[in-house]
From TrEMBL:
Similarity field: Belongs to the queuine tRNA-ribosyltransferase family.
Region (RNA binding): 252-258
Recorded GO CC terms: cytosol
Organism: Anaerobutyricum soehngenii
Protein name as annotated: Queuine tRNA-ribosyltransferase
Length: 380
């Protein structure tokens, strides 16, 4: 159940109660595609850095290790040793990302596994079954994520099919949650708004899916090739048509600036691989912009990644040492950068929640976005 605590303009500060704990929103979900954050990050680490929600991928867990095996362990929470909320995406994004290996039909999608090429069929019912086997806190409806550059006719047909799939997901989840051997009989379902960059299609789709009275609503199919301005325009148009009393989730977004802008437009949930992926390549986030620790200017820099940061990396290690680890290809360097970035994102959300509660979000947004643009020369 979602409780809206306060608003500051469109920015929402809420709590989302689940069987695995209450989520304070706005929230950034840390992406652990196959049940782990890439970069040697453990579930104990996730607790240390303030993670509220872990996100895993239905398709990837299905093709490697297998959801039936994970069900035998009592579900994904027990399998990975994590007792807080987990959101599983539906596999729908792989319809987009594996475009060369799939065929879309009304009943679902025919895939070839990206691992060994074996044939897979996944439709709404199969996606719900896999996610039920995983026992996640929140399951995402199965959808198609069309290219933002697809033509209007394709987008409209895709959205209509996604709506029909959503109705089938809802029916199947109700059935699965009622079974005696279900891992999590309180599993929640979020629907996904699609429509590319066609605002009118997006709005009509939002009106249709909100009538299904789901646990939450996501906006998908953004951050896949459109400009930031196009993304913000779609949010301005669509969010007002999604239920304010339910959480709104912007899928796969994004940079710290993207998140700050989207919160200002009424978004509650976020996820993105940026903090872990960039961390593995030595790129770290600060309130004064992003740093590349491979840069020679950090070779003798005794400061932490960011002054005042309480993450496991900044409490102990210098930029110079972490750069040394990265250059020497020591896994610890990658791990420390990932931990810092995830801590930065998680605690940026704390700052966002505090600013909304204090009704000073516009001021926070302005000063924080300006801080991200600090000239790099200041780090010399």
């Amino acid at each position: 159940m979602y409780k809206l605590l306060t608003k500051d303009g469109m920015a929402k500060r809420g709590e989302f109660e689940t069987v695995h704990g209450t989520i304070q929103t706005p929230v950034f979900m840390n992406v652990g595609t196959v049940g782990a954050i890439k970069g040697a990050v453990s579930t104990d680490d996730l607790r240390t850095i303030g993670t509220q929600v872990e996100l895993s991928n239905t398709y990837h867990l299905h093709v490697r290790t297998g959801d039936k095996l994970i069900k035998e362990f009592g579900g994904l929470h027990k399998f990975m040793g994590w007792d807080k909320p987990i959101l599983t995406d539906s596999g729908g994004f792989q319809v987009f990302s594996l475009s060369g290996l799939r065929k879309i039909k009304e009943e679902g999608v025919y895939f070839q596994s990206h691992i060994d090429g074996h044939h897979i069929f996944m439709g709404p019912e199969e996606s719900m079954q896999i996610q039920s086997n995983l026992g996640s806190t929140i399951a995402m409806a199965f959808d198609e994520c069309p290219s933002s550059r697809a033509d209007r006719t394709y987008i409209q047909n895709s959205v209509d099919r996604t709506t029909r799939w959503l109705e089938r997901c809802k029916i199947k989840m109700k059935e699965l949650n009622s079974l005696p051997d279900t891992v999590n009989p309180h599993q929640m379902l979020f629907g996904i708004n699609q429509g590319g960059i066609f605002a009118d299609i997006r709005v009509e789709h939002a009106k249709r899916i909100r009538e299904l009275d789901l646990d939450g609503y996501a906006i998908g199919g953004l951050a896949v090739g459109e400009t930031h301005e196009e993304m913000y325009h779609i949010l301005d148009e669509v969010v007002p048509y999604l239920p304010e009393e339910k959480p709104t989730y912007l899928m796969g977004v994004g940079t710290p600036a993207n998140i700050i802008e989207a919160v200002d437009r009424g978004v509650d949930f976020f996820d993105c691989v940026y903090p872990s992926r960039n961390g593995r390549h030595g790129h770290v986030y600060t309130h004064h912009g992003k740093l590349n620790l491979f840069n020679k200017k950090f070779e003798l820099d005794p400061r932490p990644i960011e002054e005042g940061c309480q993450c496991p990396a900044c409490r102990t290690y210098s930029r110079a040492y972490i750069r040394h680890l990265l250059k020497a290809k020591e896994m610890l360097g990658m791990r420390l950068c990932v931990l810092h970035n995830l801590y930065f994102y998680n605690h940026l959300m704390e700052e966002i929640r505090g600013a909304i509660e204090a009704h000073r979000y516009k001021e926070f947004k302005k000063t924080t976005l300006e801080g991200f643009l600090t000239p790099e020369e200041e780090y010399r």
